[in-house]
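Appendix B, example 12.
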Amino acid sequence: MKRILYIVFILWATVAKPQHYPGFSQYVINGFIINPAYAGRHEAMDVTLGHRQQWVGFDGAPQTTTFGLNTPLRIKSIGVGVGIINDKVGVYNSQILNVMYAYRIRIKRKYKLSLGLQNGVMIKRTNWDKLTRNDQQDALLQNQNPTSVGFLSGAGIYFYGKNIFAGLSAPYLVNTLNKNFIIENPILATGGYYFSLTDDHGIKPSFLVKYINGSPIQGDINVNYYFRQRLGVGVSYRTNESIVGILEFGINDQFKFSYSYDCGLNRLKHYNSGSHELLIRYYFGYSANARNPRAFAL
């Protein structure tokens, strides 16, 4: 049965109209991966390394590794960054390299509005040799490992303050590997607020809504609890897909890691043992102004 599902999965990836775009459970923690306007958000050089293993035990399931670096410049209204994504789905393997630029406008001293752009390239490879087939001499599959290169461009807007954030982004607004790149581009809306209960305790409700033309709207609802800005635990519900548990731990103000586990709710839950995602982050003291410790929760 699992092999049949794998074949269906590969056929879907081959003939389905929309392009596959990586998905993440820790977008609230690592907003830079979905919105270029996030660049420079924490007023310090921010370096992240992440890995997501989706649907563990399911042959050909997505595996995504990410690297991100973003920082404000000495001209404080400007933030820049670079993001690298390596994504594997079945016989497909793609690498994305993006360069981000954000211009930040201060609003009434308490808030900032950031406008972001990103441009980059995608290298996509198809390795049909990885497929198990009855006819090993099938001429249609022999030595058919094409490589294609495309141009990517996206944009986003991000509003934030000490305890609040809201964003709207289209990270792949242009993708020349996709004939209908504008129609099929995912549009992402995020928002959240950090409520300080005491000096040591706080909670942060947040959400994400993803829209792709021709697909059902997907929503994530999240609630995270924080203790002394060092420990965070949370839970998310992704509509018709999964429940996600998230753990965050900060060794100090600069270094932290987070882990999430997705427990599936749809039919695929019978054929895999869930999804795992790990993120490691380090803040460098690049900016003359110290990073606000509340940034741990935002």
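Residues 244 and 262 are 4 Å apart (CA to CA). The chain has a mean pLDDT of 83.
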